[in-house]
Amino acid sequence: MSTTDILGTLGSIFTILSFASSVFVGVAMATKKFRENIIKELKGRSFGAATLEQLAKTWVMIFERYFGDRVLSIKQLLTIPIYTLTVSCVYIGVWVLHNIHGDITAIFRPFSPLMRQSLHDYFHEAIFVALVVDIFSISLTRVAIRAGRVKGYLSIRFFLLFALAVVASFFAFTFGLFFLRVLDMVRLYTDIAPQDPMPIMPYKPIDGFSVLFNLFNAPTVIHVTSRGWFATYFIPEPVLFYTALTTQLSFVFIIASHLLAKFTLFVRQASIKMLQTAGTTAGAASGIFASMLLWMLAITFFCAVAAFH
Predict the structure, then answer these.
(1) What burial letters (b/e) apply to 237-269, b meaning 16+ CB within 10 Å?
(2) Which of 191, 209, 256, 260 is least crowded, fewest Cβ atoms below 10 Å from its Cβ?
(3) What is the value of pTM for the model shown?
(4) How far apart are CA 46 and CA 265, in angstroms?
């Protein structure tokens, strides 16, 4: 980092701190009645905290109405498959548009053999892995919502259930991919090279996991047999990954809404505390001293850098 960058960064920090202390001093110089009116206004407003919490409650209500509020709800036998199919179609649509380079007219023409095979394998095999992951995630989300109502949506129990849902979904997803790859390998050696010894495919859930974050990756597996080299396994794994990942958004939305609501209330309380402190002579004196100290430090620092650089 160059000297100019260091000066710019530290200058920005000093400017922000100086502005904050100046605001503190300005508030301290205001009349007591004016400060009391501001405090009254702050206490009477939630600054969006109530709206954020209501959004989370509305999302929970929609979730339970659609998937049911019980672990063995009958309606989920229909709604979870519909949800999985809908989300899969959305991501598959994006994947197809990327592979046809955004040419809408290409949809009405025959796809390449590779794309046809990928779509066939996804909707005939891979989508069932997505369905299993969604069942795990939705069931644990339902349990977490019950715990959130009792203990709070920012409680340790809720976060533990969130972590459990992520871990369970991760292993269900990675084991599902492992099963699909092994199944594809068994078919190949059974149909093409039945005399060859079948290789052992280890279950390594972490290896190559980062590749899945690129939606448009198209992983394949190459097997070397006595009949030659064969490229198999054309399932678009990133599409399957994002389909499974989308189910976790309920947790993320609920947690983010309540965290933002808590942060908003914290800022409001800090503002009230500042106004109350600034109204005292000790608070005003501290603000003036802090402002002067920051200005002196800034001047000293810039002079030192200019002298020794």
Answers:
(1) bbbbbbbbbbbbebbeebbebbebbeebeeebe
(2) 191
(3) 0.74
(4) 7
**Percentage helix, strand, coil for the chain under 3-state DSSP, each rounded to 5:** 75, 5, 20
Beta strands in the chain (DSSP E): 221-225, 228-232
C-alpha atoms less than 13 angstroms from C-alpha of 137 in its C-beta half-sphere: 27
For 281, the token pair is 């002579």
pLDDT at position 129 is 92
The HSE-up count of residue 83 (CA atoms within 13 Å, CB side) is 22
pLDDT tens digits, one per residue of 110-158: 888 888 888 888 899 889 999 999 998 898 888 888 888 888 888 888 8
Handedness of CA 54, 55, 59, 60 (dihedral sign): negative
pLDDT surpasses 90 at 291: no
Q: How many H helices and E strands in the chain?
A: 10, 2
* DSSP-derived secondary structure for 257-297: HHHHHHHHHHHHHHHHHHHHHHTSHHHHHHHHHHHHHHHHH
Question: What's the rounded mean pLDDT across residues 73-92?
Answer: 90
Residue 51 in tokens: 């709206």
Beta bridge pairs of residue 222: 231
Give me 128's structure tokens. 């069932």
| Cα-to-chain-centroid distance, residue 189 | 40
